[in-house]
Design a protein that fits this description.
This protein is α+β, with helices and mostly antiparallel strands and 92 residues long. Helix content is 33%, strand content 12%. The protein contains three helices and three strands, in the order αααβββ. A hairpin with a 2-residue loop joins strand 2 and strand 3. The model has no long low-confidence stretch (mean pLDDT 81).
Amino acid sequence: MVKKLCSKIDYEVLVGALTQLRNSNVDVDFGWPIIPGSLGEEQSMDEEVIEMLHKVLFDIHVLDGDLVCPDTGRKFPIRDGIPNMVLHEDEI
């Protein structure tokens, strides 16, 4: 399942988001995995990389914070694990 997802995600953004989480003031020692900066062929990923990606993709839950659009810098607040991605009238 993780191998199939890798072709659908922007891996560079995933690495950047994980780096931001690791460097943030999160007061939980989650044992943040250090995933490779880039991925090779889907068939060549070893089991350790697949396990780290699984942890990043399925076990990290942001309860409060912001999602930030890398293109526009627009912040979307996350409260109680729910992102509010509704645009304001002037943004439509």
